[in-house]
């Protein structure tokens, strides 16, 4: 909990005490009321000064202003003998004022609980983290999300990199600048939801804008990361900062019109085009849904692959839409790979000239971004390792399997990643994390408790799943890109992780080794 949140909770507590105090008759009742509401107001002001303005504190601010004003007026009148507490067991006037304020206090308490200020997890690596961003346009690809025939595909790419130790230049970038648009997207753009995550702009990350690239190595390995559909790259901030602190230069792609929000230098904010990615067919009926759940619960990769292909072949429009989006995102990742060569050669001016180790490049992502990473690495030899965080499309089974080392992370509610893990290729690894759901593979559990309450997250602790994901992906990339180590295993023993590995042979020839990690 940040200091600002502690002060805000203290203000809520004092305001609650002020209401309860009205139940106790006292000769100096109005003076006490003025003092308590004054203290609550001071704590609230301190919270605003330390953490910046945020919507969660508005209801309490209105209640404190009202109650403090009323209490001061009554105190002054009582001191002049013009007002005396009425007879009875409690001060009815003070209690009535408090009851008017009570709903406002309750709203602030609920908002602080659901949308807290928090401190981003500290990266474990030896480097501080620097940050910059690029806005690139692919002149060779039209923008298929718009109706204009002259629009070209434009992307924002956030870059996190190892910075010189001791370098304190540049301010810390916020956790998320476009929290308003992202919050609305995550809540299906319901009216009044644009402000729910706007407070994230006031929370500092661990990344310093414009910091100098570390000078202790000539070049650093590279990771491309892609977010999930309809969300935002900053929902994976803890992972990319962890990778950067361990010596990777991470290019986190904002897939325009596939992300919740992408703001360009001219100020234009481009939001997700939901209709471009939604199936045009009716939702599956209960029988089909039950059949899909049965298939995905299987431990047999062949059953999963055959069953899901059969179900999706009966929904040709859905498959076509999947293919449409996947082709665009794969093209985005391969375009970024092209741009890395331009940065390395100095054709695109930056501090990364001659500093990128492009022979050691991984492509990674979560959900739709992880699906695209698997597709890209199946056809592009510039990719040397791939990590997919809980992403699966049937269409991937019709595309070339990655021959590079591949890590697939899977949520607890299905085994769909086994269908990717089992395909012939290089060293493949599959991890299933118990008590998780899809959203747990992002940082959303740090941002708000609401998503777990609405069923988007599992029962796993938010900090624990962050450690599992961040340390596993980092360790896998270090082993695959830097040490050339085969037969990788997760870096720690967790009792809520099921792990399988398969060597570089055809699926039918190489039996997988299965381990349920024990607590260590």
Automatic annotation (TrEMBL):
Originating organism: Sandaracinobacter neustonicus
GO biological process terms on file: lipid catabolic process
Region of interest (Disordered), residue spans: 500-520
Comp. bias regions, Low complexity: 504-514
Residue spans crossing the bilayer: 6-24, 31-49, 55-73, 94-115
Record SUPFAM superfamilies: alpha/beta-Hydrolases
Molecular function in Gene Ontology: 1-alkyl-2-acetylglycerophosphocholine esterase activity
Keyword entries, A-Z: Hydrolase, Lipid degradation, Lipid metabolism, Membrane, Transmembrane, Transmembrane helix
Pfam family, one: PAF-AH_p_II
Protein name (Swiss-Prot/TrEMBL): Platelet-activating factor acetylhydrolase
InterPro entries: AB_hydrolase_fold
């Amino acid at each position: 909990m940040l200091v600002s949140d502690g002060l805000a909770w203290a203000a809520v507590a004092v305001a609650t005490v002020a209401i309860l105090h009205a139940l106790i008759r006292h000769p100096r009742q109005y003076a006490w009321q003025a003092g308590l509401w004054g203290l609550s107001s001071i704590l609230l002001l301190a919270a605003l000064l330390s953490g910046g303005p945020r919507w969660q504190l508005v209801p309490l601010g209105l209640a404190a202003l009202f109650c403090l004003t009323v209490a001061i007026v009554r105190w002054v009148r009582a001191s002049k003998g013009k007002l005396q507490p009425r007879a009875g067991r409690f001060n009815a006037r003070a209690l009535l004022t408090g009851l008017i304020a009570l709903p406002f206090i309750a709203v602030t308490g609920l908002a602080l609980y659901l949308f807290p200020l928090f401190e981003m997890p500290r990266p474990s690596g030896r480097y501080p983290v620097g940050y910059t961003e690029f806005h690139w346009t692919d002149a060779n690809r039209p923008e298929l999300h718009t109706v204009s025939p002259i629009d070209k595909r434009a992307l924002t790419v956030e870059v996190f990199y190892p910075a010189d130790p001791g370098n304190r230049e540049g301010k810390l970038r916020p956790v998320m600048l476009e929290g308003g648009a992202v919050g609305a997207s995550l809540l299906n753009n319901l009216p009044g939801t644009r402000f729910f995550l706007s407070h994230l702009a006031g929370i500092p990350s661990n990344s310093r804008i414009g910091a100098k690239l570390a000078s202790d190595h000539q070049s650093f390995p590279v990771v491309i990361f892609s977010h999930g559909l309809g969300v935002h790259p900053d929902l994976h901030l803890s992972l990319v900062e962890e990778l950067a602190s361990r010596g990777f230069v991470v290019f986190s792609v904002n897939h325009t019109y596939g992300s919740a929000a992408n703001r360009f230098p001219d100020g234009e904010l481009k939001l997700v085009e939901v209709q471009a990615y939604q199936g045009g067919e009716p939702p599956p009926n209960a029988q089909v849904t039950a059949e899909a759940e049965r298939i995905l619960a299987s431990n047999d990769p062949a059953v999963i692959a055959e069953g899901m292909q059969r179900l999706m072949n009966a929904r040709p429009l859905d498959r076509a839409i999947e293919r449409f989006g996947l082709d665009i995102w794969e093209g985005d990742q391969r375009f970024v790979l092209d741009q890395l060569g331009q940065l390395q050669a100095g054709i695109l001016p930056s501090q990364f000239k001659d500093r990128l180790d492009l022979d050691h490049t991984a492509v990674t992502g979560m959900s739709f971004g992880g699906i695209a990473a698997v597709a890209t690495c199946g056809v592009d030899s510039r990719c040397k390792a791939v990590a997919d965080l809980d992403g699966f499309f049937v269409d991937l089974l019709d595309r070339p399997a990655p021959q590079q080392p591949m890590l697939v992370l899977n949520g607890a509610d299905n085994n769909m990643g086994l269908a990717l893990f089992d395909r012939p290729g290089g060293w493949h690894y599959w991890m299933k994390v118990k008590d998780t759901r899809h959203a747990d593979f992002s940082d959303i559990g740090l941002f708000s408790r609401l998503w777990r309450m609405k069923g988007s997250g599992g029962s796993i602790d938010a900090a624990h799943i962050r450690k599992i994901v961040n340390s596993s992906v980092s360790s896998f990339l270090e082993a695959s890109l830097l040490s050339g180590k085969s037969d990788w295993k997760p870096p720690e023993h967790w009792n809520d992780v099921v792990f399988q590995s398969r060597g570089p042979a055809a699926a039918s020839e190489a039996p997988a080794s299965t381990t349920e990690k024990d607590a260590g």
